[in-house]
Amino acid sequence: MKALFGGMFDPPHNGHVGLAAAAREQLGLEELVVLVVADPGHREVTCPVERRLELARAAFPGARVEREDHARTDDSVRDGRFGDAVFLVGADEFAGLMSWKEPHELLRHVRLGVAMRPGFPRERLDAVLAQLEDPSRVLFFENEPLPVSSTAIRERAGRGEPIDGLVPPAVEAIIRDRGLYRRPGGLQ
Predict the structure, then answer these.
(1) What is the domain count for the chain?
(2) Per-residue pLDDT tens digits for 95-114
(3) CA pseudo-torsion sign 37, 42, 48, 52
(4) Are 120 and 146 in contact (CB under 8 A)?
C-alpha cells in the first residue's frame, strides 16, 4: 500500500519525518510519496517550490518526492494516479475534515491515515467519523508529535540560531549552506 504525505515542507522537520515513519510502520505502508504543494493557496510560503523539493528529498531519502500543483487534497487525488493510497494527516486536520473541499469525494479516491497524538480528544474524531459515508476508509495510527514547527524553524534560522535536532541533518546542511530563511536584518 502507498502512503501520500502532502504539505508545504517549508522546511520539512523531524516531526514530519516521524509521522511518516510511524504511519509506514503501523499501517504496513510500502511506499511513501511526498507531495510538495507548489502554491498552497491558503498559506504563504517562504522558499520557492524547487528549493522545498530539494529539502523534502533530503528529509525523506528513499521516498518519491513530487511537485504538486493542486492546492486542495481532493484535486490532487481525483485523477486516480495514486490508486487506493493512504493520505496521511494529523488528528487536528482530520477533526476539520468536513470543512475540506468535497470530503466524501476525497474518501472515494484515497483512504486517510490519521496520526493520533496523546491527549487529543477522541470525541472530536468520532464526531467526524459519524458524518462519513464510509468510515472504514479512515485508518488511525499512534504518533508521538515533536514540539517543532516549520514557522519556528524559519524564525530560528532567520536569527542565525541552530536548528540541528529540529530537522534532519541533510536538511540542516542545505538551510545553512544556502543561507535559507536568512536575510540581513531578519527573516526572508
Answers:
(1) 1
(2) 999 999 889 999 999 999 99
(3) negative
(4) no
Q: How far apart are CA 63 and CA 56, in angstroms?
A: 9
pTM comes to 0.91
How far apart CA 74 and CA 4 sit, in angstroms, is 12
Query: Residue 86 forms beta bridges with which residues?
Result: 3, 111
Q: Is 54 inside any structural domain?
A: yes
What CA–CA distance (Å, rounded) separates 115 from 23?
8
The pairs formed by 58-62 with CB atoms below 8 angstroms and a separation of 24 or more are: 58/12, 58/168, 58/170, 58/171, 58/173, 58/174, 59/9, 59/11, 59/12, 59/13, 59/16, 59/17, 59/167, 59/168, 59/170, 59/171, 60/12, 60/17, 60/20, 60/32, 60/34, 61/170, 62/32
Q: Evaluate if residue 15 carries a pLDDT over 50.
A: yes
Structural domain includes residue 181: no
> Could you list the residue range(s) of the whole structural domain that residue 46 is in?
2-147
187 located within any domain = no
CATH code for the domain of 51: 3.40.50.620
The position carrying cell 483512504 is: 111
